[in-house]
Amino acid sequence: MLINRNIVALFALPFMASATASELSIGAGAAYNESPYRGYNENTKAIPLISYEGDTFYVRQTTLGFILSQSEKNELSLTASWMPLEFDPTDNDDYAMQQLDKRDSTAMAGVAWYHHERWGTVKASAAADVLDNSNGWVGELSVFHKMQIGRLSLTPALGVLYYDENFSDYYYGISESESRRSGLASYSAQDAWVPYVSLTAKYPIGEHVVLMASAGYSELPEEITDSPMIDRNESFTFVTGVSWRFLIHRWMSVRLVLRRNATKVVALDCSVHTGNLASESGSYG
Questions:
Q1: Over the stretch 167-181, which tens digit does the pLDDT of each residue have?
Q2: Where is the signal peptide (predicted)?
Q3: CA distance 144 to 72
Q4: Confidence band for 247, pLDDT divided at 50, 70 and 90
Q5: Global pTM?
Q6: Domains in the chain, start-ordered, CATH in brackets?
């Protein structure tokens, strides 16, 4: 089964964290993907929808981030993520493609920076393959802006992904041994820039439930489309789902219970409370 890299990009749009509460969102959805690999039909599969925004870390779908520095306009974090891009020859309908080696999804580690302005947010990130599947790395530069229209929020995004030579060659190259088995021409993929656009819509139903839909389109460069593995010049992804939203309140109270016997203090009671979980709609999109 092939999962497109755009699915990751669609859910990379961050929530604006509250100073007094963290947001947790859990749900499920369906992802439709047009694979650029030849021999693959369009496929739809169920996916979890998970996000969490806290003061020290976040979960944005397949990315876990540990915040190193955060201000009103900037956020710098270390990231650990799952790259879902893969190629399974046993799922392919093309005989020649069935003779190729499997390309596995992989774990990535890197850094991400967000810069917030009134006109939108800029994201820059880079992450390297830590499982040595491709021995490559991926970069991303994007800009997005959340617009509120009544209860409906719309977030258009424009960006570009960078695949280094090792990453591109692992997922789109064909080795000499694969060429002999399959009859496809051998191909060494070079580093590639993949531009994309996306639009995400969210609409709250009542206080707790949020409906969402997101569509993404990417134009594949010739460094990828020249591969005999590829028979499309573009890739399209559509995701829809529903999630349940919570606010996790962090609060501290100190109780001083003074019991006096005449003028003598006989008891001092201090208590700290954290982590109460409430289901609220808040002001998030």
A1: 999 999 999 999 999
A2: 1-21
A3: 17
A4: confident
A5: 0.80
A6: 6-245 (2.40.160)
